[in-house]
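User: Good morning. I'm curious how flavin mononucleotide would be positioned relative to this chain. Could you predict the structure with it bound?
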Amino acid sequence: MTEKLKINGFSLGEVKIENGLVLAPMAGATDRAFREICRKHGAALTVSEMVSAKALCYEQMSKKNSESRTAPLADVYKNEEPMAVQIFGSEPSFMAKAAALLESGGYRGRTGNGLPVSIDINMGCPVHKIVSNGEGSALMRDPKLVGEIVKAVSGAVKIPVTVKIRAGWDEKSINAPEIAKIAEANGAAAVFVHGRTRQQMYAPSADWSVIADVKKAVKIPVIGNGDICTARDAQKMVEITGCDGVMIGRGALGNPWFFSEISNAVRGEEFVPPTLEERIKTALSHLELMRLYKGDFIAGQEAKKHIAWYIKNVRGAAEARRRINESADIEQIKAVICRLTEEDGK
Ligand SMILES: Cc1cc2nc3c(=O)[nH]c(=O)nc-3n(C[C@H](O)[C@H](O)[C@H](O)COP(=O)(O)O)c2cc1C
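Assistant: Good morning! Here's the predicted structure, ligand included:
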């Protein structure tokens, strides 16, 4: 037995997120295949990639019978529940309409057989294309609009509504506690806090004291996020901030075992890191899941980055990455990965 890690966990409506362990939404990474793998390894809640509220609504209004591009991003399947769907946008009416569509599942292009446990509102995306439309982290500059959006979305659905925020727009405008209070007053059921400003994007290190300030400011559950790379980091974040759960992003890329490591620590059980063989086996099954869900062509393109994450720090990884990037199809990618274990055994 190792030292027990204490994370209180939190609830989304009737659903208890037992170990408080959440896989962060990551556009281009946390798709169905990866979410499923992380759930299997101990993530208690996953979140979709961000979904444009407006695009989802427009897709429903379109008379063209073209293939849905937005709806599949919001698909929830039974074997990955509980899962939240994250929406982004800046117009309360579209946000509310999108949330209602997602809650009911009654929209065109849906193939998932499950439903979201909650709707999360993106108030953290720092990307220029998004903030220049007043969406994502730009919302934190407009507290009044934050209140209107949360109120409209909460009023449109019965399931819980959460917000994912940053520390603030820049270091001169750290307002996460104020935004969290506004969200709470307008119906938010929980808040995810990434301890960086929009200006900081993804570096330098996250400021966890902001998460502590949010925790002091609101009564709803607060889930801390940013730079959790080891089980000890998770423990430290809980101790420093008093947060009810932890959200993990980059630390899980190519490393779904991170969830087993933390959930084992919560149970006071020892964690044995995966062998190279196990890592390769999981990378291969990840590839096969992507192939099943996205088809050979897209899986072949999108799997390359995941494989690169799985083989990080493995002997021969640089050469393998080069060969994977040059691979024309999935079979070639698989052959390169398999060779890594063979070479390791020499
Ligand atoms: C590739 C990538 C894509 C991301 N996409 C989203 C997104 O769609 N929605 C969101 O709220 N945050 C997104 N984020 C931010 C993460 O959810 C998280 O807040 C951030 O990575 C900090 O956590 P970490 O240090 O554990 O990675 C993204 C981050 C990365 C690296």
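The chain has two domains: 10-267, 276-344. The first helix runs from residue 32 to 40.
Let me know if you'd like a different ligand tried.
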